[in-house]
Structures are given as structure tokens and as C-alpha cells.
Amino acid sequence: MFRIYRDTRFSKDKSPFKPAVGAQFPHKARNTGRSVPGFYLHLEPRRCVGGGGIYRPDAAALARIRERMVGKPKEWEVVRRKRIPIEGETLKRPPRGYDPDHRFVEDLKRKDLYSMSTFSQREVCQPDFLATYVDACSRAAPLVQFLTKALSLQW
User: Which of 53, 27, 65, 69 is CA-nearest to residue 117?
Assistant: First the structure.
């Protein structure tokens, strides 16, 4: 949980310390010191998102994910056929050791792999928002499942 207040008694700027709250729901293996996939929710005025994936995995985890894409292309193809919008920072060139003409080269260039859905403030304030968020996580679930398997974790 993030601190949502700050002592503004002697400050001209009375804005909150942090105008957002985020909640991460990582894989249960998070305490092993390894990079793990999971789900995320971010609530902020005019910027509310939720979804899942992996953000800034360590080099070993990223290598395992890339190897799974190349080694089990049918599994990755299933994820891509779901038309999940995958986001994250990418390399300019393919990683060393990977064919620049590989059919998944754009995915192999990724440093992060996550999918987020955007919510309006109106949606977030509705009584059924939890169901809306769960739907967003369900849409990202095939990606999270692939990442989980790539890292030899239990789904």
C-alpha cells in the first residue's frame, strides 16, 4: 500500500503526496527472489488501468521467456491469436542469438510483456467495478499463463 497523504501544514503546495494507488497481485513464487508474472491495478484521476504480465524481468527470466517463444511457437501463437495487445519497452534490434527474420521477432525484442485495459473514472466508481477488473485480467490471462509456464511456475 502506498502512503496517500503528506504533511502540508507548512507548504504552499497542498497537493497529495501521491495521487494514485496501485495494487500488484504477483505469482505466489514472488518471495523466491525471481521475476514473476502477475496482475496489476492502477487507480489515478484520469488514468486507471488493470491487466497482467511481467514488467522488467531479470535477464535470466527474459531469456527463458524468449526461449519458450522460439522453442514452443504453437503456445505463443495461441497467445497471439487471442489478439491480446501486448505492451512494454522493446529493443531496437533482435536480441543477440535470435534470427532477425523470425516470425515473432517483434515479440522477442520486448523487455516487458504485459497487457493493460484502460478504465474510465465512471467505471471505477461503479459497484460492479471488481467484475470489470476481473474481465480485464481474464483477457490478459493467456499471456500470464504463457509467462508462468515459461518460468517453470505453477499456473
Answer: 53
Question: Is position 155 within any domain?
Answer: no
pLDDT tens sequence across 107-119? 999 999 999 999 9
Domain-embedded: residue 13:
no
Q: Whole-angstrom Cα distance, residue 131 to residue 134? A: 5
Has residue 3 been placed in a domain?
A: no
Question: Domain limits at 38?
Answer: 21-150
Give the phi and the psi of residue 147 in degrees, each rounded to 5: -60, -40
Half-sphere exposure of 137 (CA within 13 A, CB side): 15
Alpha helices for 11-128 (secondary structure H): 59-71, 73-81, 105-108, 121-124
